[in-house]
């Protein structure tokens, strides 16, 4: 099996030099977190960098934020010299979107390196433009022979562990950038809206963890302004901005974009909040989420506002992005003998079954924001994820997963595997009907990797309903260990274009490979 090396390949080496040499993309924005002024002098600025997202063979989204009202203009080219560029006129960025915006690029060549640069033009004087901010991405391949590499993880700025300048900020993003992936899958908890960032935290050994702080991150997020500030916080990190300029993203969300373990209709019992209605908070967060990430199924691209979607990455790979947060029923003991709402909702489950059946990709990655067989409690009696600790026949939310797994088996859908983060450690689970109470499914793998910058937590128990076995796990022995005490984790997937073999590697910050699993193509179960 041929693997790309972590150093940049020849086709990208000049790209990396170019992206590192753009002062505008890497300039540290003002740390006040305040919204831009509408009456600033000079030219517009894009100090928050650029992002690309939901890239396919012929399309992709490019994101930017201005420091004032400005017209977004994107130029693309096959080379970083930008000779004979193609120009795309994007939206006017204003206060209604917190001066952010995305431009959809269509008609791109498949399997090619796309260089892009974003300019911001004064709406009243188009000759007054910002310095260009550059980025790059590679469109999905048209043929099967092209190797695929992507990374996944989640959980950023959680439990009070924010951007620490003494440690070089979110340095794991620089490590991931050097892996040269085709894209990054963020499995949720992109922010911790319910977790304020304090200036300092004293560690158990007496040393002090220092955080970059902002006004919006000094309290829990309730207002739209505070949610916007929470999403903006991570972009203060230079490593993340550099990563965004080189690696396109596929982003999903989970609970901490709003509040720990939230579900629709919940009324919070949290003294820190004056707004107790989680539906109000979720709507504000989703608006800010759609403003700060380039996502094809959220406004302005799609007024329906879905987070769940499928991204097709050539003949080898389809990525099915789930939303296990927005359509779930209330957290409970999970012992219902009949549950049509479950954790996905009936409509999303029907969509997933339909799209999996239609997929002709060799590999079908199900990007789940929560694990299947790990027992994640919510208080003393309720459960937050799918599993509820009863190893018997499916009950509660397990019923939906059983229905989905049965569908995959009976339709002969090959090459499925599940990727997630959420639990703040890394592990591998293999599910097999020979060990399970529910037996009408084909064997499959689930891999967990995270956090990227959050507290580490001890491992949770396994639920035997779907017969999980855990050949690898690495987790701290106590709750909320800081990133200074335990490594941060991310996962890597390589698909060989020649053989179709898929290899998963669970990695930790610092370059170590903790676990490797090779999967063969064309099988219903592994």
TrEMBL record:
Domain Phospholipase D N-terminal as annotated: residue spans: 49-139
Record-given protein name: Alkaline phosphatase
Signal sequence segment: 1-34
Gene3D superfamilies registered for this protein in UniProt: PhoD-like phosphatase, Purple acid phosphatase-like, N-terminal
Taxonomic lineage from the root: Bacteria, Bacillati, Actinomycetota, Actinomycetes, Kitasatosporales
Domain PhoD-like phosphatase metallophosphatase intervals: 156-505
Pfam families xref list: PhoD, PhoD_N
PROSITE patterns: TAT (PS51318)
Entry keywords, A to Z: Signal
